[in-house]
Structure formats: C-alpha cells, structure tokens
C-alpha cells in the first residue's frame, strides 16, 4: 500500500505511516570468504587542525573504513575515543569542519550527500547529530562558518552560492530557532574569518578592510569603520570586552562602538623597518597583554592603550620565531638563528626581560606547545621530521629533556587539549593518535586509526553465468586481481592475476568486457573474460568505458594515448574479437600544450563520448568536438556516419586552450558553449534526455534521430533557471523523472513523449517544506526513489505513477534523521537497498513498497556500527555484496534469495 493514499493529505499520510513503522526481522546474510586476512593497509585520517575542546573532550574529524570522514570525540583515553556521527551514511565522507562547542553542544559544518554543506549539531553522544536547518535548500551548500557568541546569542555566517551574498544567522540549535539576522553584503562580497566574540557583541571583517559589529539583531548589525588597505589581511584578537585589530599599517582597539574604536599605534612608529610589510606572523595573549610578532622579526606588546603599545625587541636576522608558547611565568619563543641552531628565547613583557635563554641541543625542533603551568613540549630529532622525539621543558636548560618513549614520533605538530595534555601522532606504520601530559607515565596511545582488519572489497563486480566476477585486494598488495564466486566459500577463488583493478564491466554474449591494469603499467586497457582463467585475456591497448551495443559491434569511449600520435579519449568500436578495436572517429581533432612553459609535448584533446542508447539503428551520444561544445551526436558505426545531430546550445565564447605549435591539428579562435545532453531514455521511436540550450536552462528534450526532430519537449520552469530534469526512467509506457518546481523543491513528473502529456505526478513538498529526490528505480512493479525533506530526512518513497499512490514507504529513521536509502536494486518482486534506521547502522533492507513489507536483512555489524553493504548483484540463489562486519574487514557477503522473498518471522 502506498504511503500517500488518494484521499489523505501529505501531512496526515506521513503521520499514519510513522505509526506503521516496520519491525526489523533478522535474516541470514553470511560471509562468503575472507580473502584478505592481513592487517589493513589503512593509513588512517585524523584532522586535529580544525578541532574544539569542551569539558575535557576534544572534537575533531577522523575516518574509519566503514563510515568515511565523520565527527569524532576523545577525552584522551582509548575508551573515551569514539565516532560521534555518520552524517553521510555509509562509506562516504561528510567532512565535518568549523567545529565549535557552544552552550554545551557541538556545532559543525558537514555534508550528508544530498543537502550540501549545512550546519549540524550534536549533544556529544553518538547518533545524536541532526541538521540544524537546510539554509540553502536542496543540493546546494550554505557553507556555514564557526558559531560565535554575542551575549546569549549564537551567530554564524553562511553564503548564497554563486551570488557573492553573505548572510548573518542566529541559532539556538533548532530549525525553528534559526533565523536570518541580516544580509551583510549582497553582491561580489567576501568576509575574512568568522565572528569574533567580545562579550555582548561580536566583530567581523567584510571585504578585507570593513570592520562590522553585531549584537545578534538586525538593527545592531552595522558597519563600524574602514581600516587598512585592500587585499591585506586584518586580524581580530579578542580581549576582555574589546578586541585588538591588526591591519596592514596600524594596531587599533575597538569595543564595538564608534567612540570605543581608536588607533593605538601606527607600525611606522613601532617598527625599526618602516618599509617592510607589517604582517602578523605570530600572536599570543599573556596575562591580559597582547604580543604580536611581525614577519620582520619584531615583537610588539600592547595592553590596549596607546601608551602601553610599544616594540619590545627584534629577533636575530630579522626573522620571526617559528613557535611561541605562553607559560604562567613567561612566554617562550623558539628562534632559528642563521647558523641553523635553535635557541629558546623568553619574555615577561618588557624589553629587559626579553632575550635568549639557551640553545636547544636537539636538531629541527618544532611544535612548541604549552601543557600547563610552566611546562611546554616540543618535537625534535636528528634533522628528520619522520624520526622526531618528544621533549619537555620548563623554560630552563636543566629542565629541558627528551621523554623516553619507544620508537619515533612523526610530523611537526602538537595539539593542546586545554586541560594539561597534548595530542600528537605516531606512524607505526600508519596513523596512531597519542596523548601526553609531559611525563613518560602520562604518555600513551589513544587510538590506532590503522588497527583494522584487511579488506579485499569487492572493489567492482558483475554477474556472469550465474557467478560473480569481481576485483579484490590481496593480503600482499598492491595486487588487485580478478576473482569469481558462486556464493559459497569453496566456489570462490582467483580467476586471473593478470588484470588488476578491473572496472567498467559490460556483458557481451557469454563474456564480460572491462578495463583493467597490467602489473607495473599505469594506463588501463581493454580485457575480456568468459569466467575461466584461460578465457581471461587482454583485448587491446586501449581503455574501455561507456559501451553501447549496435548490431554485432560495440561502440565505446577509450583512451588512444596522449602523445603527439594519440588522440585522447575518443569513440572506438570492436566486434568483440581480440585486437579488433579500431578508432571509429577522432571527434575532437585539436591538440594543446601539456606544459606550454617548457614546450614538452602536444596532447590530443578528448571528446569524451558517452553513448546514450540506440535509436533507429544509430547510437545517440554526447561528445565535444572542440568547436561546438558538448552536444548531441549520432553514429551508425562508420566514420562517415558519425556526425553532430544538433548544436542545442549555439552560443560561442572566445579564447580556447592554446593550440600546439605543430602541424598536427587545426586552428580555432573560439569555442561553443555546451548543452551537455544526458540521461537518455528510449520511448518507442523517440529518445528523451535533458539539455541546456543556454537561454532557458536545463529542460526536457526529445529527438527522433533527426536534427529537425530534436526539440525541447517542455519548459517546466520558465526562464533561465531551468527545471534540471534527472533520473529519467521508463515505466508503464511512460518516462518518469524528477525535476524542479517553479518555486522551491522538486516534483515527480511523467511524459508520454508529447508536450500535452508531460505532467506533474506529485509535488514532493511535506509539511510546507520543499523536497528533493534522487535514485529513481523500477522494482516490484512500481517506482522507488529517495526523497530528502527536512521533516523526514532522506527516506525511501514509492509510486505506481499516480499522485494518490505516491508517497513515503516508511520513515525508517523517524523524525528529521535520515535513513539515506542507497544502492536501490530490483531483486525478484522486491527492492533491495541499504539504509540506516538510527538503531542498527547502515545495513541491508528489502521492501515490497509497503511499510509492513519493509524488513531489515540481518545486522552484519551488530549495534550502531555500519557494515555498509552495496552494491548488490543478484545470482540465481543469492545476492552478492561487499560488507564489513568489523571483524574480517570489507569482504564478499551473500544474502540467500529465500531470505529476501520470505524473511523469517
């Protein structure tokens, strides 16, 4: 039963379906074979450069194989170091950034894969993450910055893509409590940095030199004054209720009012080198005083008054210190002298207390960082940053020593936690996060991000003769040979070690054609297999992708080499016999200089042909001939019969890539703009596709294979914006697709190939909020697709083609959380997909299109961990996929078809 009955409103239907939330029933997926039993080759990823600390816990971005790059937390103990989010469900990366802790919550920017870079919030516990608000609705990105405080208000900036417009927003962490404060600039603007809090107000810089202030209200957000010179960085350094402002030639003080904004000193009064640029190199606050180091190596001190702002000293050779650490009793500087020696300097804020203390015995020290009190740590070693050691100092020569630890530290950075400890990395051999309090006993490993089991994949897979052919990584690596499996351990084994990293599988008769690499070769070539070792052979020296079957031959795009004798990626053909590949046509005959400065060689431009189906005995394709842009072409399999069909976007632009100074190619002075036809679907004697004619945006087009019969079918969103149709699929003698509404969001549309017969099935809006869809798939006699709405998150929808039978299958992850249905695959009379119900992580599910018939197929990685299965390939008795159970790494798994048809009750 559809999620949105004919006589029920969208809001009511959503409520009813949430009450019909399915019970997850166990199934029996099983590990087929652990092909890679070695320790993983995962080198790990941890980014502590963008981190935030609150209540003894640090928040940062890190990655593991099953979840990609997500938000993590650590209290410095192995048990307290864990992943918090899976914003981009499964193995994709949400790339959290701009991490800030405010009002006991963690705010950060992240991308869930369907709503762009938006503002998210977590309470610091795993699985609590949620999008604050989709500020740039749909797939576009608002790119929010760090959240700052102005009194009890939380503020941040976001941008409107491709407009130069920046907006100041206020939030309490909820959608309803997130509101626009003011558009700070509306065209061709940019801002430098995030808001800087100074008590009840916050400051920020617009267009390099304009100082603004805000109290979090529209009237209280205003321009304060202009400072400095264009294109020179301005720094805001917060004090107690005010800020120092370091511009290109002066140091200012401001409390956010006109009267309280005044010049402290010009740098030509402070510096002995008035002609040098006075850029800020290092800064530190110490006991209410600001210390700034100029690139010229001069140390400036300020207490926020003109008379208390003066130059203290100059460092040797007019060179600024590499690092600075603020201890309780003094400030330490690591100074690199012209002799190459590193000397520790210190200052207590006056000229007579500023100077060298002693030379550091170790070479190449780096990362001088305060721990607590009068202690700091730094890294040093024998001139090799890959073999550094951890040192501790109290500012005296006697109190400076190397900590005795096994092995080496790697890198040059230390990261203070703010509670008397410091994070650092060791590579043994991959990323391992450690922490120290400056003692041997207090130095230990927090987590190894490389401590994972080896994974074979599968990397790419396809069915052949009732078996699965796939590429997989072997323990010895980097070999990625070809395997074959019938879904049993005994029936799974090496097919051939000759082709490596196989991809672009294409069924041709009783064989698979594909691209793969030979050992120690860097260019892919065309291969074939019949499922036997002897029948796995190299077919040509050309690569193979985007194939289309035309009679008894295959047209495809392939690389013909990049030398002066090559033609780039062009249209090729083969009859399937070994070494029968021929260049069908060099659609783009132009060349360009690969390195114009040195004139090394000429490289053939590429037309990048992508076939779009066979219509009337000819292949439709999109290609770029170097003159007209990427346009609609057609080929009958001969050179003469391969020609442009129509230049849909006839507009031109001057200035093409520089042509090689050789006689090998023609010359040109301008090029065409591209209509970029894509998403071809055949419907009877015509083909439908989307294209952009340069004036009415991307819309739905139709062709009967002739130039005069190629036209725009419908202008769904009048004007230059276009409706951007996508996910075109044929279903029930119609073509269904997703496209924009004239307002916001998208609708499900259908067409019979006529303008009158092109109609909206249903506006996907829910609760008055716009929605966006993707992954339109035919299965179980109906349509399925994933829809993102802020009310429900990204969830699975279905349709029989009518408005009354179109709606949410079930809110699998209730509320605004997303189940993020992916890898939608038709298997028998069901849809198989991967989703996260908010309880069991990213696992395999099946549905017949009803809430009651939506069932989880096991929990391969128990609990909240994700096994991230997919893609799925159906064999006679099982469905094969790759999955990671957390014990064996990512390996081939099988789901019995009986479990899909009738999962156990």
Describe the structure.
The chain is globular and about 90 Å long. The protein contains 3 helices and 76 strands. 47% of the residues are buried. It has 905 residues and is an all-beta fold. Mean pLDDT is 89; it is low at 1-26.
Q: Brief description of this entry?
A:
The chain contains three helices and 76 strands.
* Strand element count: 76
Largest sheet: 4 strands, antiparallel
- End-to-end Cα distance, whole Å, is 20 Å
Strand order of the largest sheet: 1-76-75-74
Contiguous helical run count: 3
Percent of sequence in beta strands: over 45%
Mean pLDDT: 89
- Structural class call reads mainly beta
Please bin the fraction of helical residues.
Answer: under 10%
Q: What integer value in Å does the Rg equal? A: 31 Å
Can you tell me the residue ranges where pLDDT is under 50 for at least 5 consecutive residues?
Answer: 1-26
List key phrases describing it.
905 residues, single chain, 2% helix, 76 strands
Question: Helices, strands, pairings?
Answer:
Elements (H helix, E strand, L loop, with lengths): L9 H10 L10 E2 L13 E10 L2 E8 L3 E7 L6 E3 L13 E6 L2 E7 L5 E6 L7 E4 L14 E3 L2 E8 L4 E7 L7 E7 L5 E8 L2 E6 L3 E5 L7 E5 L8 E4 L4 E4 L3 E5 L7 E5 H4 L9 E7 L2 E6 L3 E5 L6 E6 L8 E4 L4 E6 L5 E6 L7 E5 L3 E10 L2 E7 L7 E5 L7 E2 L12 E2 L5 E6 L3 E6 L7 E5 L11 E5 L2 E5 L10 E4 L6 E5 L3 E9 L2 E7 L7 E5 L7 E4 L4 E6 L2 E7 L9 E6 L7 E4 L5 E3 L8 E3 L5 E6 L2 E7 L5 E6 L7 E4 L5 E3 L15 E3 L5 E6 L2 E7 L5 E6 L7 E4 L11 E6 L2 E7 L5 E6 L7 E5 L7 E9 L2 E8 L3 E7 L6 E3 L13 E6 L2 E7 L5 E6 L7 E2 L16 E2 L3 E7 L5 E7 H5 L4
Antiparallel strand pairs: 1-76, 2-3, 3-4, 4-5, 6-7, 7-8, 8-9, 10-11, 11-12, 12-13, 14-15, 15-16, 16-17, 18-19, 19-20, 20-21, 22-23, 23-24, 24-25, 26-27, 27-28, 28-29, 30-31, 31-32, 32-33, 34-35, 35-36, 36-37, 38-39, 39-40, 40-41, 42-43, 43-44, 44-45, 46-47, 47-48, 48-49, 50-51, 52-53, 53-54, ...
């Amino acid at each position: 039963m559809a999620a949105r009955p004919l006589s029920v409103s969208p809001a009511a239907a959503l409520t009813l379906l949430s009450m019909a939330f399915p019970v997850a029933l166990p199934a029996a997926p099983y590990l087929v074979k652990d092909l890679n039993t070695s320790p993983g080759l995962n080198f790990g990823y941890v980014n502590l450069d963008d981190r935030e600390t609150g209540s003894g816990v640090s928040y940062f971005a890190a990655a593991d194989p099953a979840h990609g790059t997500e938000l993590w937390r650590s209290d410095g103990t192995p048990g307290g170091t864990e992943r918090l989010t899976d914003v981009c469900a499964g193995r994709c990366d949400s790339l959290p950034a701009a991490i800030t802790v405010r009002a006991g919550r963690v705010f950060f920017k992240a991308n869930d894969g369907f709503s762009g870079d938006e503002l998210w919030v977590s309470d610091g516990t795993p699985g609590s993450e949620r999008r604050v608000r989709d500020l740039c609705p749909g797939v576009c990105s608002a790119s929010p910055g760090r959240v700052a405080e102005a009194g009890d208000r939380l503020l941040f900036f976001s941008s409107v893509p491709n407009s130069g417009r920046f907006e100041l927003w206020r939030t309490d962490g909820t959608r309803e409590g997130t509101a626009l404060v003011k558009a700070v600039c509306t065209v061709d603007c940019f801002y430098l940095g995030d808001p800087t809090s100074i008590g009840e107000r916050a400051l920020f810089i617009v267009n390099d030199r304009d100082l603004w202030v805000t109290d979090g209200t529209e009237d209280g957000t205003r321009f304060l004054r202009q400072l400095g010179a264009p294109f020179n960085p301005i720094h805001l350094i917060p004090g107690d209720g005010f800020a120092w402002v370091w511009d290109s030639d002066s140091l200012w003080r401001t409390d956010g009012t006109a009267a309280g904004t005044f010049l402290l000193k010009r740098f030509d009064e402070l510096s002995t080198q008035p002609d040098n640029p006075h850029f800020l190199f290092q800064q530190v606050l110490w006991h209410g005083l600001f210390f700034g180091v100029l690139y010229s190596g001069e140390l400036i001190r300020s207490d926020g008054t003109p008379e208390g702002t003066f130059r203290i000293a100059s460092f040797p050779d007019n060179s600024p210190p590499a690092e600075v650490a603020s201890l309780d009793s003094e400030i330490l500087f690591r100074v690199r002298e012209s002799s190459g020696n590193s000397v520790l300097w210190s200052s207590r804020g006056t000229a007579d207390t500023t100077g060298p203390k002693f030379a550091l015995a170790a070479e190449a020290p780096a990362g001088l960082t305060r721990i607590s009190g009068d202690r700091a740590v730094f890294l040093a070693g024998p001139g090799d940053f890959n073999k550094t050691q951890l040192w501790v100092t109290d500012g005296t020569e006697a109190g400076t020593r190397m900590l005795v630890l096994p092995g080496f530290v790697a890198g040059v950075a230390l990261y203070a936690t703010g509670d008397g400890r410091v994070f650092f990395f060791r590579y043994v051999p991959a990323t391992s996060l450690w922490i120290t309090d400056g003692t041997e006993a207090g130095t230990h490993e927090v987590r190894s991000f490389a401590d994972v089991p080896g994974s074979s994949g599968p990397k790419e897979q396809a069915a052949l003769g009732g078996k699965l052919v796939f590429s997989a990584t072997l323990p010895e690596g980097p070999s990625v040979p070809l395997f074959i499996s019938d879904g049993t351990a005994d029936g799974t084994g090496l097919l051939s070690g000759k082709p490596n990293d196989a991809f672009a599988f294409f069924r041709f008769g009783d064989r698979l054609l594909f691209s793969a690499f030979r050992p120690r070769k860097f260019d892919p070539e065309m291969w074939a297999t019949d499922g036997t070792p002897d029948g796995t052979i190299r077919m040509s020296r050309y690569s193979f992708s985007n194939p289309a079957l035309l009679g008894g031959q295959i047209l495809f795009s392939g690389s013909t080499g990049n030398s002066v004798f090559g033609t780039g990626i062009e249209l090729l053909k083969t009859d399937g016999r070994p070494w029968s590949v021929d260049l069908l046509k060099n659609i783009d005959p132009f060349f360009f200089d690969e390195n114009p400065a040195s004139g090394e060689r000429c490289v053939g431009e590429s037309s990048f042909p992508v076939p779009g189906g066979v219509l009337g005995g000819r292949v439709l394709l999109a290609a770029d001939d170097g003159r007209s842009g990427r346009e609609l072409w057609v080929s009958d399999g001969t050179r003469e019969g391969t020609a442009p069909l129509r230049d849909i976007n006839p507009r031109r632009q001057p200035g093409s890539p520089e042509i090689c100074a050789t006689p090998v190619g023609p010359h040109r002075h301008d090029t065409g703009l591209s209509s970029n036809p894509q998403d071809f679907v055949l419907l009877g004697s015509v083909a439908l596709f989307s294209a952009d004619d340069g004036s009415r945006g991307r819309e739905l087009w139709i062709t009967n294979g002739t130039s005069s019969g190629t036209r725009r079918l419908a202008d769904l969103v009048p004007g230059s914006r276009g409706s951007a149709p996508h996910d075109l699929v044929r279903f029930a003698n119609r073509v269904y697709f997703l496209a924009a509404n004239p307002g916001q969001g998208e609708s499900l549309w259908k067409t019979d190939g006529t303008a009158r017969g092109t109609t909206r099935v249903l506006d996907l809006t829910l609760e008055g909020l716009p929605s966006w869809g993707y992954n339109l798939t035919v299965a179980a006699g109906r349509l399925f697709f994933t829809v993102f709405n802020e009310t429900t998150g990204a969830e699975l929808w279905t349709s029989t083609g009518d408005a009354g039978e179109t709606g949410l299958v079930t809110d699998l992850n209730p509320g605004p959380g997303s189940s993020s249905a992916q890898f939608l695959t038709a298997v028998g009379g069901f849809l198989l997909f991967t989703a996260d119900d908010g309880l069991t992580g990213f696992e395999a599910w099946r549905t017949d299109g009803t809430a009651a018939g939506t069932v989880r197929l096991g929990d391969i990685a128990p609990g909240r961990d994700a096994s991230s299965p997919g893609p799925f390939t159906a064999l006679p008795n099982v469905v094969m996929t790759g999955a990671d159970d957390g014990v064996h790494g990512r390996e081939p798994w099988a789901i019995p078809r009986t479990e899909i048809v009738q999962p156990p009750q």
